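Exam review. A common question shows you a sequence with its structure tokens and asks you to describe the fold in words. Practice with the pair below. Do the first one on your own.
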Amino acid sequence: MGAVSAARMETFLVVARLSSIRRAATQLHITEAAVSAAVAHIEKQLGAKLITKSGRGIALTEAGRVYADYCRSILGLMKEAHAAVQQAETGRLRIGVVATAGEYVLLRPLASFRNRYPDIELSLSVHPRDVLFLELQHHETDLVIAGRPPRNTGLVIRARRPSQLVVVGAVEHRPDPLRTTWLLRGRGSGTRDATLSLLDHLDITPPTLTLGSHGAVLAAVREGLGVTLIHSDAISHDLESGVLQLLPVTGTPMDRPWHAITTRTPTPSTRLFLTHICDPAEVGPDAFHPA
């Protein structure tokens, strides 16, 4: 069996993501014939059918889904290997965060890190935790700031920072958390899962409203549309200004620390960032603690 080039793997992944030879060709700025030839070459090398027609587009076969998963990991490892041999101070660092951590936990440490190491190429992506952990497993991200990762993923918690989940509502509307609407994040959110578990624990079935983004949920709470379970980091200003109030609910507050998570082989720049966010002299009282 011959080798499959990285370029052909990348082409196949675009086809897999877009479910279309035509759209893949447009995005890659090559001909449809070139895309089809790349996929056909891979199928010949593997001796397996990877795609099949589906309506006006294509769909992955089971073999195609398995191979796409491997392609993501292989390409991610190749990029990670390139970064691993660079000097830490001139490398690349790809950070993934859940929305709350991106807005209220990471920005200040990230700014001080950039000032300290201006030659490191930084990128920041914001996704639900499930997406972030999958990207980290595929070596498409170097470090994730989120809740605890799932077990048996091979991911490693390198540092923690204390945080709590609390229930809040608008002061003006004086909501009863046992009867009012509960505002939820979108699917894949750890806070959503914690909220649903809390409602089960309380043995109540109140009305719920899913608003998706963290910002939308927080805005809706301020307007009195309901109550929500949220990280304490996100509402300190609203509590101080008297817009929101903490609501006493059995089972809260919940300890839900933030975790800095990597693969088993973090790059030099990743290790440098971990050292930075664990240094109170650099990031102040919000420093993480080594795991």
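Now try the second one, then compare your answer with the model answer below.
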Amino acid sequence: MRIAIVNDMMMAAECLRRVVADHPGYEVAWMAKNGAEAIEKCLVDRPDLILMDMVMPVMGGAEATRQIMAQCPCPILVVTSSLDANAALVFETMGAGARDAVKTPVLSSSHGTTDVDEFLRKVDMLHRLSSYEAADELKSTQQLAANCSRPHRGNPLIVIGASSGGPNALETVISNLPQSIVAPVVVVQHIDANFSRELAQWLDKNCLIKVRLAEAGQRPRVGQVYIADAHKHLAIDEMGLFRYDEVEEWHAYQPSVDVFFESVASNWRGDVIAVMLTGMGRDGAKGMLGLHRAGHYTIAQNEASCAVFGMPKAAIEAGAVIDILPLDRVAPTLLAHLIEIGLRKAI
């Protein structure tokens, strides 16, 4: 895999170069000191992955990502020395199309290899996602739907899956939901585990409705938004409570939209509204198909408003989607469907 490095800090850039060069199967395609230089080089020599810094002279990482995705799209991984300080910039860059974010690795005896191992795991995951094929992914969905087809007598639940471009898309949807919404909202966003809590805090700050991290043993409450902790897979158990399952080494997605959607299809007793937002890959298509076949309402974000159309496209091609909507129509449609559910139950 050919990897480009965009970083104005000499020590950080050299550390990344050494980590990439020392890994079998990886090579450095080119290096750039700012976003403008990265765009020029990418137009001439498109790499398999770009490691993008946030704060740089001339042009920062967010704007560079936006222009690269428009002119010569390729996978971008945000690499930053300070996750906490740059959280808002990271979410902006992911909204522009970056796939994920990770802390800059440190090569020193005092830090050990933890940062390097995590960095390489993230790069490897993105490489697998870029070439991911899932011929058998939908194989068991028919049986799943058959097992969970039943009357929907409990409270409604809104579930949302997202990946690349997700933070900004989520803000657009959630900021248009009222505090009086008559359903819990649960979000599974592909993101580095160090950013789950920051994402919940960032959305909570920018939205009227309360946003928090989902905790094991909690029951989703009406009028609350819950973000999956990316350390493990979030699921709903037989009692309708949040549960976290260990992440399998072979699983490319963390947390998995499929794992959560399938648990909802099997265990949630009420109506479900499932939404697939922007993202790379196929995660969620199988779970959404199970929800659709069980009689639940499903929405996919349309291509024109997606940073990356992979996940919505996979759900659409699987026959799992009822409505395909531009991003600004998702929240109003959710609310209209909740009213329809209420009226149907009142008859």
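Model answer, second protein: The chain has twelve helices and 14 strands. Residues 114-130 form the longest helix (17 residues). Full marks require stating both points clearly.
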